[in-house]
Design brief:
Blueprint: H1 16-24, E1 34-36, E2 44-47, H2 49-52, H3 62-68
Antiparallel strand pairs: 1-2
Length: 71
């Protein structure tokens, strides 16, 4: 019986969407950036490391994130 070699890859895409946004809008570099749904009922998909300094995290309600980081 012939065995096949398996490979497993892990990609950390933690702030992927923020990185894409910064490529398209470089003027946001160094500023807190939050990507997610609407302010009232949405959730944070991801955020920049600058926003994390304010306590913003993925899966947090957007309303709470905007209170922590209103700018």
């Amino acid at each position: 019986m012939q065995t096949q070699q398996r490979y497993i890859a892990h990609f950390d895409l933690d702030s992927f969407f923020v990185s894409v946004e910064l490529l398209e809008r470089p003027e946001l570099r160094g500023l807190p950036v939050i990507v997610g749904g609407s302010r009232d009922r949405g959730v944070v998909t991801t955020c920049s490391y600058e926003a994390r300094k304010f306590g913003v995290r993925s899966a947090m309600p957007m309303k709470q994130a905007m209170q922590l980081c209103p700018q």
